[in-house]
Amino acid sequence: MLNVCWHCGVYRVDKIIDPQGPVAMCPECGHRHPFLQLPLLLVSGASGAGKSTICHALLGALPEVVLLDSDILWRPECDTPADRYRAFFET
Ligand SMILES: [Zn+2]
Predict the structure, then answer these.
(1) CB within 8 A of 60, min separation 6: which ones?
(2) What spacing in Å lies between the alpha carbon of 59 and ligand 1's midpoint?
(3) How far is the CA of 66 from the centre of ligand 1 (A)?
């Protein structure tokens, strides 16, 4: 939802971030969207290693971070073992 400006309604992914807010500024109208800028904690690992289990166990236990299971970032075009799944890890 951050990519749709609350003020002008234009979809833009290239927000200008002001870390002093923190706010994301709309490139179209300059509206300043406040947001929580938290550390990002990614849980990754081999299939079946327990990523989902540990993420579930940590829900609510770490309110000072954004916690993501890397599986939510997977998409079929990331299945490129020849380049060691570069697109996935860059995502
Ligand atoms: Zn706007």
Answers:
(1) none
(2) 33
(3) 26
4 CA distance to ligand 1 centroid (A)?
Answer: 8
How big is the chain by its Cα radius of gyration, in Å? Answer: 17
| Count of beta carbons in the 10 Å neighbourhood of residue 4 | 12
Can you tell me the mean pLDDT for 55-76? 85
Instruction: Measure 25 CA to ligand 1 centroid, in angstroms.
Output: 8
With a threshold of 0.70, does the pTM exceed it? Answer: no
Distance, CA 22 to ligand 1 centroid (Å)?
17
pLDDT, tens digit, 9 for 90 and up, residues 16-42: 999 898 999 999 999 999 988 888 888
| pLDDT above 70 as % of the chain | 99
Whether the CB-CB separation of 29 and 3 falls below 8 Å is answered with: no
